[in-house]
Amino acid sequence: MRFSTRCIHGFGPAPDATGAISTPIYQTATFAHPAVGQSTGFDYTRDVNPTRSAFESAMASLESGAAAFAFTSGMAALATIAELFAPGDHLVVSADLYGGTHRLFADVSAKNGLSFARAATAREIAAAITPRTAAVFVETPTNPMMQVVDIAAAAGAAHAAGAKLIVDNTFLTPYFQRPIELGADIVVHSATKYLAGHNDTLAGVAVVSDAVLGERLGTLRCTLGGALAPFDSWLALRGLKTLAVRLERQAASAAALAAWLEGLQAVREVYYPGLASHPDFAVSERQASGHGAMISFRVADRATAHRVLSSVKIIQFAESLGGTESLITYPLTQTHADVPEAQRLALGIDETLLRLSVGLEDARDLADDLDAALAGGVGRTSPALKTPRRNAASGPAPALRGGDRAF
Ligand SMILES: Cc1ncc(COP(=O)(O)O)c(C=O)c1O
Predict the structure, then answer these.
(1) Taking CA atoms, which of 174, 281, 291, 335 is between 20 and 30 Å from 151?
(2) Are residues 325 and 210 in the same domain?
(3) 98 is catalytic
């Protein structure tokens, strides 16, 4: 089965006898045993639940992994992964990281005896590895600066030192990027974002490349208790069915918007890996089949940033990303408020930086909304966005970017 078919059928038929097309929500805490010493394969929902298993099977298939584990949030997945390590272990992590991940490492993992080095490129990763390094952890593209790391090179450096490579694939999803195929050992997602896709639930998922790692992570999840509830598993599973079509459209809109933003006087810099001006454009082209639907950009000053955030009408000023509704975020006070100031400023996360998650609205309405917000009620200041190719009413359909495209 090809990628978009596996989004819909990748977990097999519903495990009941009714023929239900939609996997039932097994809203049960526990399961009856047929006899002493026997099990149906389902004992207790903290460990296994059929609705959750369907989502996990689909994710293992889509990420080319051996097994997947769904969690109550992306942070629950990350916190459980951190428990794979022991006091004294050293991790090399992306210099730019989602603020919550930074907080986990700095406030919780450090207290538990882990130490960290920060690195932005595969070369810096290789240089930061020490004999104590147990893992390399990267986001790619990073949140919010959209830096891209060469996954195969990072895997090579990690494995040469006997360390694991963990990749947070939240921004691109397996539709555009499959890190395990490039050498990663664990892929982690905030499934709250594109996988569930509708800004209506929190979820996380970790996919492992081999069964031994799966055993360890599954036991840890059961011990720590972070497994995703049946109803949320069903929402994530339902979201997954439209992953390919949503991402194709959202990325096409984002590419058009990024190019349009780059041409605006009011915009200082645009960070989108699909722009030829992006320093990591070539790496992104090589290792991913699309550049996603997240854009960060910089405006002239704090006043302009605040005006945009308070004036947008269709785009909502809110945390999170990856859903049907476009969201604009102020990393400085929202997602990255806990990153130490010096580190934040060195990365470029300051009062002029805005992060845009492009949703499923018509890209021309999003451009009009941004234009009006940038102008502050003065009227149109910039050229209208040209119809993104994918919205065209006629003409041949462009080739698919993600999923099974050979790259
Ligand atoms: C890249 C990335 N990883 C992990 C997380 C944490 O996920 P959650 O909010 O589902 O706990 C986020 C949240 O924004 C994120 O952007």
Answers:
(1) 335
(2) no
(3) yes
Q: Is there an atom of ligand 1 within 6 Å of 163 CB?
A: no
Interatomic CA distance for residues 289 and 177, integer angstroms: 7
pLDDT (tens, 9 = 90+) of the chain, 407 residues, equals 999 999 999 877 666 788 899 999 999 999 999 999 999 999 999 999 999 999 999 999 999 999 999 999 999 999 999 999 999 999 999 999 999 999 999 999 999 999 999 999 999 999 999 999 999 999 999 999 999 999 999 999 999 999 999 999 999 999 999 999 999 999 999 999 999 999 999 999 999 999 999 999 999 999 999 999 999 999 999 999 999 999 999 999 999 999 999 999 999 999 999 999 999 999 999 999 999 999 999 999 999 999 999 999 999 999 999 999 999 999 999 989 989 999 999 999 999 999 999 999 999 999 999 999 999 855 566 777 865 654 333 344 445 566 765 43
Measured by CA distance, the residue closest to atom 9 of ligand 1 is: 74
* 46 and 179 part of one domain: yes
What domain count does the chain have? 2
Burial 31-64 (b: 16+ CB within 10 A, else e): beeeeeeeeeebeebeebbbbbbbbbbbbbbbbb
Tokens 């990027």 locate to 177
Exactly one of 89, 96, 168, 369 is catalytic; name it. Answer: 168
**Domain match, 215 and 275 both:** no
Instruction: Give the residue, by CA position, lying nearest to ligand 1 atom 12.
Output: 190
Give the CA-trace dihedral at 12, 16, 18, 20, to 10 degrees. Answer: -40
CATH number of domain containing 328: 3.90.1150.10
Question: What is the rounded distance in angstroms from the CA atom of residue 337 to the CA atom of residue 349?
Answer: 10
